[in-house]
User: Fold this.
Amino acid sequence: MNVTDLTFLALCLPFLGALVAPLLTRTLGHNAAWVLALIPAAIFVHFAGFTAEIAQGTAITGGYTWVPSFNVRFSWLIDGLSLSFILLISGIGALIVFYAGGYLKGHPHQGRFFSFLLMFMGSMLGLVASDSFLMLFIFWELTSITSFLLIGFDHHRDAARRAAFQALVVTGGGGLFLLAGLIVLWNISGVTQFSALMAFGPVVKASPLYLAALVLVLGGAFTKSAQFPFHFWLPNAMEAPTPVSAYLHSATMVKAGVYLLMRLNPVLGGTAEWQIILPAFGAATLVIGALLAVRQTDLKLMLAYTTMSSLGLLVMLTGFGSPYAIEAAVLYLVAHSLFKGALFMVAGIIDHETGTRDITRLGGLRVAMPLTFAIALAAAISMGGLPPFFGFLAKEEVYAALSSFDPRSIGFAILTVIGNALMFAVAFAVALKPFAGKTVATPKHAHEAPVLLWLGPAVLALAGLVAAALSTTVHTLFSTPMASAIAGEPRTVAISLIPHIGVPLALSGLTVVLGIALYVGLAQVRAAVASVLAWIGWGPDRGFDQAIRGLLRLSFAITRRLQNGRLDSYMTMTFVAIAVVLLVPPFVFGELALAPVFPSIPLHELAIMIIAVIGLFAVVLAKDRLTAIVSLGIQGFSVAVIFLLYGAPDLAFTQFMIETLAVVILALVMTRLKLSPSDHRPFRQTLPDAAIAIACGLGAGLLLLKVTQVPFNTALSDFFAQYSKTVAHGANIVNVIIVDFRGTDTLGEIAVVMIAGLAVLSLVRLRAGSMRRIADNDPDAEEAGR
Amino acid sequence: MKSLIFRTIAPVIVSVMILFSIFVLLRGHNEPGGGFIGGLIAVAALSIYGIAFGVETVRRAIVFHPLSIAGAGLLLATLSGLLSMVFHVPFMTGLWVYPVVLGEEIPLSSVMTFDIGVYLVVVGAVTSIALSLEERGED
Assistant:
């Protein structure tokens, strides 16, 4: 197997794993985790093999033709950016599988959970590896769908279902923005692959559609990466089991938006719009997220809101445009994945072992859970940006990017210091508060976690330390290629643990001092934020519910108007529409038919036409319905005879049969519906009906007249006449067209006939009273009924 | 219907019509006719039979449920189209064989089986409608 096939296999492997996971879990129980973790491990090893090559600055592409007619390929692009993401996804993925093995031990649906988790892993890998736009979009939406399944895993609870639905609507809807944005980019550049798009940066930026592309892409990125005001789904997603929160909603999926911005930075970045919109939204998200995090007492929610603010910081840095900003984003992204993943898993361990994750009901766990405490502390030190952890490097680089003396930098530096100080306080609130102080009685008696549970966070916390110690190697292999790929030009990351006296260090010091102060006064800050929130009283989360409710009301109102269940109003609407379509365009475009020249008609033909007209009048004037139905048949038969006389025997033949059956069926319908023998509609009802009927007839007549007056294009009839016998071996052109030349059409038509038969049968069999009324779907009535 | 004349003559008319409908179906490739028209004639025949002897008699006479007949027709038509896949030609390509039976060459084709499928769908679907309406009309 060559590298291309192996890479393809590696991208498919999680999906194959998802297939066997339920079976494996049924036989091995929670120990299936040891086997299933081999899948992400194998992927990690495969892609790690590219590291040396990527570090040289090359990008590896490969793939297969997918839809050649649209120039769509299933192709991947492995460069510094995607490689770092792939290694994070597969590496943390393996640890999460272990963790899930311990966390959901004995859960009846653990196999299903593994299956969902691996499917998500495959989607996320595909997302970051994608080179073609369409592939990226498909995997993007797949991550939304798998995230929906994972958030709603505990589907018995209302809150979980609501959170899953909300996440799907927000991120899936954002995906549609992304699709539109990618199509705009395709339209501007004419290419469908990111590797080719990179050369079109100046073209895209100069295009009048640039702003449209930017806004659409940001719509996708901001919803996925939970930027304010689309952040509300992320804390709600904490309804998912903790492995999901640690993996999707901190380390990987929520970074997809950031990934997209980084990927498109060489194409869309560097403009004034980019450097205004991204930092503005990012900084707002950073500060608001950190404030909301302080407000919480639930460990997972605190972490969720700090994830939101970290994502804000990343978006801000990606768009900031100063030296070191990209490098800072790279370092912070990696550091965040390590420490936040670890902290989430710690929160899960605490919840799992004590039965609560409310910070006010926890304390003194350091005695019972020393190992967990050590892990939590290590991760929190990294999150707080203290040496000797990787988070320190990241934070120094962040401040290096912001330490200029122009007003813009100073403003954002102040916001960042505030955000980081708040996050510092939350980090130690999560890692210190539950373990320090007096032992508090918890719902479950606390024990140290089993190996499956502590393995993942321990490795992640340790990785933060090792990466900082070996910073030179890490930078050469990962940070530098990743930063270069994002910037679209060679960059070098050089920061190490040895601090340099300067503005960044001073800002770091300020952050720490402020953070400690906030930590000490956490209860007061929490109360203050809570009172402000209570004063505001409304948030996007409530707004989401209102929007959904509004949508339901609107669709209900429209449905009740259009689908009112009255056949006569459907018929009226349909025929009014037909009349409008037939009559309005000829007048608007001046395409009215000319007055026809009446040819001399032989007497027998004239006689048949007169019979048709008599039939017509008989229909209208008939006293009872049966006469009208039969008169309609007479009119139809006369028309059929006219067809016959003018050389269309097939048509005439069919018309005869149709008319016969129509009379029979209409008569049957009349008896079936027990209609009164005659029509008793009042005049005010017959008048509009007659007007509509005359308008339709007039329109159809004028159209046919017009058709006969334009030159007849014989291309098709010549073609069929020429080839009917030679190609299709049939002399009856009409039938050859039906069954051979346009056979696929006929197949569709007979399928429709079949379905119509089914529909009529079920309508006839319906019993009155068993029907559900449309009004029963009223969202307000349902609410009132509860 | 209680008319003695109608009841006496109905079986004759009906059998002639059914026969005629098959004739129309099979001649359709070269002369006026085909599956649609043939199917409609057969439906008309079955309706007459139903009016003369009641719906139950018709249901017994055609053995299968009308919609099963329609489903079988749709299946036959689809398979006629899919047959082309075996011969690596595009979907719905007409395939012909000319076996010689008793010294007479008989052209057979997937187009013909397709047309038979059309015939069955029309017979089944429309008969189902007519019969269900008649049935309800009686009670």
Summary: Chain A has 34 helices and two strands. Residues 295-311+321-520 of chain A form one domain.
